[in-house]
Amino acid sequence: MPFSQTASIRDRARLQRLVGAVSPAKSASVLDIATGPGYVALAFAEVCREVIGVDLTPGMLELAETHRRQRKLSNASFQSAVAEKLPFPARRFDVVVSRLALHHFRAPARVITEAVRVCRPGGTIAIEDLVASEHPRRAAYQDHIEKLRDPSHTKTLSATGLKRLLARAGLEIQSLSSSELLQDAERWLSTSSTPEPVARKVRALLMQDEKHDLSGLCPFHSDGRLQFRHNTLTVVARKI
Predict the structure, then answer these.
(1) How far lies 4's CA from each of 67, 138, 193, 213, in Å?
(2) 69 and 10 in contact (C-beta within 8 Å)?
(3) Residue 231 pairs with which residues in a beta bridge?
(4) How many helices (H) and strands (E) does the chain have?
(5) Over the stretch 57-74, which tens digit does the pLDDT of each residue have?
(6) Which SS3 state, helix, strand or coil, does residue 142 take?
(7) How many domains is the chain partitioned into structurally?
(8) How far is the C-alpha of 6 from the C-alpha of 191, rounded, in Å?
(9) Is residue 12 within a helix (H) or strand (E), and if so which, with residue range?
(10) In the predicted structure, residue 144 carries a pLDDT above the cut 70
């Protein structure tokens, strides 16, 4: 699975920054929503009592379990679950986390509502995701590119939109940290197995963006390769 091998997904320094931002207790029970290959869940399992990762894709769950066995972590487990209707009782977890997944959900507010439901009062919810421009036309240009490249993409929220979503769910924001993912366009297209006719359209849109600054992606050429920057935001919030 090319996605699971993406350097930014596996980057241990980024994973450690996320765990550090949450700063969970050793006794914490953690839920990782849309765990994918399990990298986030396993990073938390290194420092917490219990971690459960959920996902809908069987292949990803199998890969996550393979990674767990390789690292010999007995306090992590993985299971199939719908993010919008989690199979856990209210107040089950001390920490609920999700990384680089919210832009794939058709009802992100419902996912956040479920995260809040299964988190104990005073517990922590951490979301890391791509963020788009605050200006709707520029954000729409980015989303057009994203959806062409990967039809599972739904919408990239702005930083303001993400913070508003969490606040409306009854959360109190504790910390914010921004970063960027430097993307090589060809590797990015390969990761999603984008068909070549569609890939040509994506490249053309990125090159127009490079010329006319049409989104927040800031495309540029370096050593003959087309690159761009994904802006990300990590929000750590408390359930009040």
Answers:
(1) 11, 29, 13, 31
(2) no
(3) 180
(4) 9, 8
(5) 999 999 999 999 999 999
(6) helix
(7) 1
(8) 7
(9) helix 12-22
(10) yes
Close Cβ partners of 35 (under 8 Å, ≥ 6 residues apart): 41, 53, 54, 55, 60, 61, 64, 78
Mean pLDDT of the chain: 96
Question: 13 φ, ψ to 5°?
Answer: -65, -40
Per the structure, the complete domain to which residue 61 belongs is given by 2-239
CA distance 40 to 64: 10
Residue type, 69: R
Q: What contacts 125, CB < 8 A, 6 or more positions away?
A: 95, 96, 97, 112, 115, 116, 119, 166, 171, 236, 237, 238, 239
How confident is the model over 192-239, as pLDDT tens digits? 999 999 999 999 999 999 999 999 999 999 999 999 999 999 999 999
Rounded to whole angstroms, the Cα distance separating 165 from 171 reads 9
Q: What is the CATH number of the domain that holds 9?
A: 3.40.50.150
Q: How many CA atoms lie within 13 A of 122 on its CB side?
A: 2
Residue 214 structure tokens: 């049409």
